[in-house]
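Support reply, case 0932

Customer input (verbatim):
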Amino acid sequence: MKYYKPFQLFWSFFKIGVFTFGGGYAMIALIEKEVVGRRQWVEQKEFLDLLTLAQTSPGPLALNTAVFVGYKVDGYRGGLSSVLGVVVPSFTIILTIALFFSAFRHNHVVEAVFMGMRPAVVALVLAPIFGLAKGLRAWQLACAAVALAVTWYVGFSPVWLIVVGAIGGLSYAYYAKKKGKES
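Our regenerated output:
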């Protein structure tokens, strides 16, 4: 069974890559359903940790998530298989569209198709947000709301919010560990 893992990872991420429009955030719900729910390669909490790591790493979210999940499941082979699975469909589709798009870009049917896809893409982006929010406590939701408000209305850089969140998380972990030793 171990020898089938790279193929299973490739095929799982390939299907996600083929059937997802809207970028990395739209893929999160499908990746979670596949690797946590269907295949049970990682636990829910572990997936959230891998997703957090993927979001803080430079590069596309879906690609980073594929790397981390693949590596977790089957080491370097799994990471490579997952990356190829998620990249090959997008690359092929973009290349095909680029070759033929200029010929029919102003066609009213093509424009209507793209207009019809917009609500589905918005839903695919919002689905993981609501799914990830289920596991949060009230104070974590409040922190997320404050961070969103500060970024949206004040124009504060999200980079600084990530730094503050990392420092807060490290401080919390240090405090919890210190408190555990004293007990």
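We compared this against your earlier run and they match. Two observations from our side: The first helix runs from residue 5 to 19. The chain has a mean pLDDT of 86. Please reopen the case if you see a mismatch on your end.
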